[in-house]
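Note to self: keep these together.
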Amino acid sequence: MRVIAWMLKLKQLLLQMSQKKRKEDGFILDHDKGKSLKNQMLLLKIPSAHALSLSFEDYKNPENVIISNLQRQHFKKEFALLEKRVQQMKLSVKIGSYH
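Structure:
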């Protein structure tokens, strides 16, 4: 569980970095322009490795992810039916909003 918790934490951090990078206009990770990777990380306000630690919630989340993945593997037909139903409901809401 601990390894999965760290992997999920890294995934979350990378998603945050990606979103911040998109928001920064013209921000490029480029060592040739005189900015060190450390300075670029500071610009993106990315926590350094020593600042990262796992919380109680971080340990709880892997269990939910594992269970969710197992459910999706073993109940593929049921999930497909549910997703189809959700799409139908979204379509009916869109049609209803035009009247």
